[in-house]
Amino acid sequence: MIKVEDLTKSYGKNQVLKKISFEVRKNEIFGLLGPNGAGKTTTMECMEGLRGFNSGSISIMGLNPDEAAKRKLIGIQLQSSSLPSNITVKESMELFCVWNKVNPRYDLLETFGLKEMGNKQYRAMSTGQKRRLHLALALACEPKIIFLDEPTAGLDVEARVALHQEIRELKEKGATILLASHDMAEVEALCDRVGIIVEGKIKKIGTPNEIILEVRRDTLIKIKPSGKIEAKLLKNVVLKDLKEGYYRFAAADLLEGLSEIVSYLKENNLELLDLIIDKPTLEERFIEIAREDK
Ligand SMILES: Nc1ncnc2c1ncn2[C@@H]1O[C@H](COP(=O)(O)OP(=O)(O)OP(=O)(O)O)[C@@H](O)[C@H]1O
């Protein structure tokens, strides 16, 4: 669907993209994950046809980014300066939809909490409100490919949940979505595959699960029983420490470890007062990868 090959981009002498290559498959949500300044926005802007690049190639459904944009294959969150200051929320939706030859999506204004401010002028909107309007417009013409750059930054919890739901529905309807973010939980929850970009280079591509499996530590099971546990008798878990009545066990296999602990508690008439499972996360692997070259 999208193929980026050996993409390089410099701002003056500062080379910010250093031969980036990745593919986005049809109907997947692909997350571009990276620390501040890694090159996510620059990569997205090159793909959107908004920014030139020095070398390499970008193919979007077989077209170059300019052509793909002209044919309205891609939906982009507009930049803040791109709407006239006196246009209202409702007018901007209508204008955008007439331009794209689709029916206005007033429901999206409702989804993003903008319904009540249909007559508000763009210049009077807060940054968060503008952001939500840009998202509603980006999604309104149901493009085949959608680029979202930090879509939930500055959104409140309700709008964030609504946006996640909207993204999932767009995928169900067949869209391909590229999402740049440094929000690990968001990427883990939404993305089918993730590319980790650090200092202008792609360091890792895989599903969130594949990447999490690379974390070099066991899952930790933290429990508070109603009495003492003879930890030496347990074969599937290793006691790491015992603090304030909490036993922290490492388990190579979570289910086996957990079932052994539960059986032990039952056999010894102990109650389980608290249970915390601490599994490796995408964030842990991301931090390892970001530090690898330092
Ligand atoms: N218009 C520009 N002119 C000069 N340098 C730029 C410009 N835009 C970005 N940069 C630089 O390019 C590098 C990559 O920036 P980019 O915005 O692509 O990163 P990012 O991963 O999106 O970061 P963030 O998560 O902070 O948004 C940074 O060092 C940034 O300072």
Describe the structure.
The structure is a single chain. The protein is an alpha/beta fold. It has two domains: 2-213, Rossmann fold (3-Layer(aba) Sandwich); 215-280, Alpha-Beta Plaits, CATH 3.30.70. Helix content is 34%, strand content 29%. It contains ten helices and 13 strands. It has helices at residues 40-48, 65-70, 89-99, 106-111, 127-140, 157-172, 184-190, 208-212, 254-267, 282-292; strands at 2-11, 14-24, 29-33, 55-60, 74-76, 145-149, 176-181, 193-198, 201-206, 219-225, 237-243, 246-251, 272-278. The chain has a six-stranded mixed β-sheet with strand order 5-6-7-3-8-9, sandwiched between helices. A four-stranded antiparallel β-sheet has the order 11-12-10-13. A hairpin with a 2-residue loop joins strand 11 and strand 12 (246-251). The chain is globular and about 70 Å long. It starts with a strand and ends with a helix. InterPro entries: AAA+_ATPase, ABC_transporter-like_ATP-bd, ABC_transporter_ATP-binding, P-loop_NTPase. It comes from Alkalibacter saccharofermentans DSM 14828.
Give the secondary structure arrangement, pairings included:
Elements: E1 2-11, E2 14-24, E3 29-33, H1 40-48, E4 55-60, H2 65-70, E5 74-76, H3 89-99, H4 106-111, H5 127-140, E6 145-149, H6 157-172, E7 176-181, H7 184-190, E8 193-198, E9 201-206, H8 208-212, E10 219-225, E11 237-243, E12 246-251, H9 254-267, E13 272-278, H10 282-292
Parallel strand pairs: 3-7, 3-8, 5-6, 6-7
Antiparallel strand pairs: 1-2, 1-4, 8-9, 10-12, 10-13, 11-12
The structure holds adenosine-5'-triphosphate (ATP).
Q: In total, how many beta strands?
A: 13
Any ligands, ions or cofactors bound here, and which?
adenosine-5'-triphosphate
Using only C-alpha atoms, the radius of gyration works out to 24 Å
The CATH architecture category of the largest domain equals 3-Layer(aba) Sandwich
Q: At the third CATH level, what is the topology name of the largest domain?
A: Rossmann fold
Largest sheet: 6 strands, mixed
**Shape type:** globular
CATH class of the largest domain: Alpha Beta
Q: Biggest sheet: strands side by side, in what order? A: 5-6-7-3-8-9
Tell me the number of helical segments per DSSP (H or I, 4 or more residues long): 10
Mean pLDDT: 90
Number of domains: 2
